[in-house]
Amino acid sequence: TRRIVLAARPHGEPTDDDFRFEEVELPDLSDGQVLLQTLDLSLDPYMRGRMSAAKSYAAPVEIGDPMVGATVSRVLESRDPSFSEGDVVLGYGGWQTHSVESAKHLRRLDTSVAPASTALGVLGMPGFTAYSGLLTIGNPQPGETVVVAAAVGPVGSAVGQIAKLKGARAVGIAGGPEKVAHLRDEFGFDAAIDHRADDFTDQLAAATPDGIDVYFENVGGAVFDAVLPRMNTYGRIPVCGLVANYNRTSLPEGPDRSGALMGQILTRSLTVRGFIQTEFVATQQESFLREATQWVADGKLKYVEDVTDGFENTLDAFRAMLAGRSFGKTVVHVAD
Ligand code: NDP
Asked: Which atom in ligand 1 lies closest to the alpha carbon of residue 220?
């Protein structure tokens, strides 16, 4: 297999020198294992965390090990009765062109409704994150205002559209006019604004005349600063991700604002609740797959994918995703 291993822990934005391409022999299959060829590799913000040694909810990738990641793969050889050659599956092959995996970690993909790559995005972990975090913690009610940033990405686009399906008003935030237009015209957000615009705070105020009931937190940073003063009493903030911080090497300069933040939480009776999607898998994965597949089939849940051709371009695509140069779910197309 060809694979990309972590060569050093990145400081700030990952550089080419932090990684190494390798060619290695895969081990022979044991019973219960399958040999997979990677077709599509998912690139996700959480991978930046795995490159760092800092303590988090999951162990870091060790130096010299291949980067982790979900993959859509084809079964080349199987030593498990539940899979046969040619099956297309969702696996966790990582940044490699081929992998050996245990059959019990794989799910066969049904491509009758949507292409297999959607198992990495709208019908996969990111879509599930939006569904479980929004409905369980955000609990949007008809007529309420839901705000989400990174709104063209797989999590944010699903948050906005599911909020609409529940009768709420969806306001999307993204970087640049093309993305803003896409939010409004393709995803059906009620309002869309550009976090890079000089008058972003004023635009947010104009887009949320009744305040904000649910802020689905994907980014942190300046967007959070603009949102917080607009939160309504009993507002809910599912804290899903803080992508504005992922390449940061230290906290931003400035006065300690934690007192003011706690003051807002107190006086407006806000609920701020972090989550990792895995906590909801056992109870909600089935209903998610059933409902979201139907929504996609009915055209009520749309998605956009940013597909980069060629395994050798994986790192560039990863950097682009974190920096906002991607347009939708980031996928590397590794083989046909
Ligand atoms: P995206 O594909 O949307 O990529 C991240 C996007 O964030 C960028 O493309 C960029 O888009 C935006 N962004 C980056 N920096 C900033 C900034 N400083 N201010 C505002 N926006 C910024 O990512 P996903 O949809 O895959 O993930 C979204 C979030 O959900 C991430 O924080 C991720 O870590 C989190 N997540 C959490 C999970 C959990 O279990 N808790 C599971 C899965 C994802 P733009 O051009 O719009 O600026």
From this structure: 19
Rounded-to-integer distance, Cα 311 and Cα 278, Å? 28
Which protein residue's CA is at the shortest distance from atom 33 of ligand 1?
Answer: 241
Report CA(227)–ligand 1 centroid distance (Å).
16
Q: Distance, CA 272 to ligand 1 centroid (Å)?
A: 18
Rounded to the nearest 5°, which phi and psi values hold at 131?
A: -60, -55
Tell whether ipTM is more than 0.95: yes
**In Å, what is the CA distance from 210 to each residue of 171, 234, 334?**
12, 14, 46
CATH code: domain 2-119+304-333 is 3.90.180.10
pLDDT tens, 222-272? 999 999 999 999 999 999 999 999 999 888 888 888 999 999 999 999 999
Q: Which CATH architecture has domain 125-278?
A: 3-Layer(aba) Sandwich (3.40)
pLDDT of 310-333, one tens digit each?
999 999 999 999 999 999 999 999
- Tell me which H or E stretch contains 237: strand 231-239
Query: How far apart are the CA of 155 and the centre of ligand 1, in A?
Result: 8
At 55 the pLDDT is: 86
Cβ burial, residue 52 (10 Å; 0-12/13-18/19+): middle
